[in-house]
Amino acid sequence: MAPKTEGNNTNNKAGFGLDLADASATDNKKKAKSAPKLSAKASKSKKKQKKAKGKKRDAPSSVIPKVVSNRMLRRVGIFSGIPTLLAFLTIPASYFITEQGWVEFPSTVVLFISVTCLGLGLVGVSYGIISASWDEELKGSALGISEFKLNLGRIQERRRIQKEERKRLKEEKAKEEAKAEKASAKAESTSPKTTAETSEEESASS
């Protein structure tokens, strides 16, 4: 009886080893099959990331460049700061001059000069922004007359495009509303017919 048990044990051990070998072989095959799928998914994800990065780089940024913003601030400080400073200095300067007895300024003239300087300061804000060169590489001229004309034309063109877009959206909405009204009118016109037909069928069946 002992040799049989030993043979059985050896056979069982051998069979267990073969089962493990078969299981490992099947696992390796599954891994080999799944590896190309994973690599394909990884390559697709990498391609998507590259495309997204390319789109971000190609898309125009709505943020004003730092060079252009600094240029605008400098021009606003010049064209708006100087008239505003003169507006605040007009009243004490006129008071000092009249106290010294050099010239007597009427109060209306002093007020008019002060208000005019304040108005020029407000206009200088918009002029300083529009007259600045919006190109990073071009510095622009000192007065900025040519840049003002160019940028003003850009603003007008942008406003014209926005108006056309609004008109187009309004027309599309009007068309959709007209279609909805026609569909509702058709539904209302067909509903009495169906009720009449049902009443006729009921009378015929009775």
Mind describing the biggest β-sheet? none
Query: Termini distance?
Result: 96 Å
Cα shape:
elongated
Which structural class matches the secondary elements? mainly alpha
Q: Give the overall average pLDDT.
A: 77
- Given as residue ranges, the uncertain stretches (5+ residues, pLDDT < 50) are 1-21, 55-60
Pfam family, one: DUF3464
Biased composition (Basic residues): 43-56
Keywords: Membrane, Transmembrane, Transmembrane helix
Region (Disordered): 27-61, 164-206
Task: Give a brief outline of the structure.
The protein is mostly helical and 206 residues long. It has five helices and no strands.
Commentary on this structure:
Residues 186-197 have a biased composition (Low complexity). The chain crosses the membrane at residues 76-97, 109-130. Residues 27-61, 164-206 are annotated as: Disordered. InterPro entries: PAM68-like. This protein is 85% helix and 0% strand. The chain has helices spanning 2-58, 66-79, 81-100, 107-130, 145-205. The chain has 206 residues and is mainly α. The chain has a domain at 66-160. Helix 2 (66-79) runs antiparallel to helix 4 and helix 3 (81-100) packs antiparallel against helix 4.
